[in-house]
Amino acid sequence: MWGLVMGISRIVIQSLHVAQPRNVRGKYPEDAVREPRACGLSTENRILMAVIWLRQYPSYASLQSLFQIDKSTASDDVHHVIPILYRFLEGIIQWPTDQEFEQLWGRWDHFPNAVLALDATIHRVTRPLIGQHMFYRGDKKCHFMLSQITCAPDGHIVDLEAGFFGSNDAGHYANSMVGRGEKLLPPWAKILADGGYPNRDPLIIPYTKEESEGDEDRLLENEWHRFYRSQVERTIHFLKVFRSVAHIFRHPKYFQPFVVQVVGALTNVRIEIIHQLEAEEEMEGIEEDGEDGEEFANLVAEMEM
Asked: What is 93-266's CATH number?
């Protein structure tokens, strides 16, 4: 089950067992007489509880009933296990190498130099007591944190930056590693982005209404741009299947980027599994077509005899 859901073998799961006390959120000082209690669940069940929390976003009372543990134990263990999963899974999201960029060239016919697409998505949070204006944007009419996702033409996430306060696309792009040029691209490579991003290299944004009005070529180019860029929107849809990043986040703000990064890694695992299943179905179809063709050829030969 774990190999299918998370791409983690049972041996690796056992190695994730953490012996140190679960002193999450600095709840207990270093010289405290009382150490935090250990969790009575097995390593598999602790990870299972964290994944259930990520996917379904249940209350701690629900986890208490499901796993027969105390609510505070469930809370402590979720906050303890997810950062461990973040460190273990962070290698699943990888920026392409120069060779991989070469392989991505031409995947989008009408924008052959475009090898990636990026977009941002919001995660609603409870209204903070301090600095509310940092998390609020008038057009969204809610408090939120924001993540910027960059994906390849096949939907795999190659960069995920989380924890931005509420701002516009151009603002968080300027503060991101991609926007600062810390994620290296070949000189020819471009990234598709929507009109909220700045019109500067390496981004390709659509023409504005004024620029494209009455110009059939530009209108058609915008249509293809929208079609190709929809890949990152589908990836965001896969990401938000996990309710922990789709519903209002009611936990400490510092914890939210850990949650998003783990969900992003699991989303990549899911996308890879989908691609593998599609490839297997395609191969089975080819084999069936080959068998049908052979039967038809034998039938024709018999008729000719």
From this structure: 3.30.420
The Cα–Cα gap between 117 and 58 comes to 32
Question: Does the pTM of the predicted model rise above 0.85?
Answer: no
CA 148/CA 159 separation, integer angstroms: 8
The phi, psi pair for 117, rounded to 5°, reads -135, 145
Phi-psi region of 117 (alpha: psi -120 to 50; beta: other; left: phi over 0): beta
Q: What token pair was written down for 81? A: 């296990």
Is 90 in a helix, a strand, or coil? helix
pLDDT tens figures, 214-271: 889 999 999 999 999 999 999 999 999 999 999 988 888 888 899 999 999 999 988 8
Q: What is residue 181's predicted lDDT score, i.e. its pLDDT?
A: 87
Task: Give the 3-state secondary structure of residue 118.
Answer: strand
SS3 of residue 210 by DSSP: helix
Residues with Cβ within 8 Å of 205's Cβ and at least 6 positions away in sequence, in order, are 193, 194, 195, 197, 198, 199
φ, ψ at 204 (rounded to 5°): -120, 115
Instruction: Please report the pLDDT score of residue 139 as a whole number.
Output: 72
Residue 269 is encoded by which pair of tokens?
């695992």
| Stated length of the chain | 305
Residue extent(s) of CATH 3.30.420 domains in the chain: 93-266
Asked if 213 and 98 touch (Cβ cutoff 8 Å), the reply is: no
pLDDT per residue over 155-208, tens digit each?
999 999 988 776 677 778 888 889 888 999 999 999 999 988 888 889 999 998
Name every residue whose Cβ is closer than 8 Å to that of residue 229 and which is 6 or more positions away in sequence: 117, 119, 192, 193, 194
